[in-house]
Amino acid sequence: MSVQAIISDVHANEIALRSVLDDCSAQKVDEIVCLGDIVGYGADPAECIDLIREKCKWTLCGNHDVAIFLPVPVGFNKIAREALEWHRRVLEPGFTFFGRRRKQQRWAWLRTLDPSFTDGDVLYVHGSPRDPLMEYIEEGDVADMGFGPPQKIVDIFERIPWLCFCGHSHRPGVVTDDYLWFKPEQLPHSKFGAPRDRKTLVNVGSVGQPRDQNPDASYVLFDRENDEVTFRRVPYDVEAAQERMKRHSQLHPRTWQRLQSGV
Question: How high is the mean pLDDT of the chain?
Answer without folding.
Answer: 93
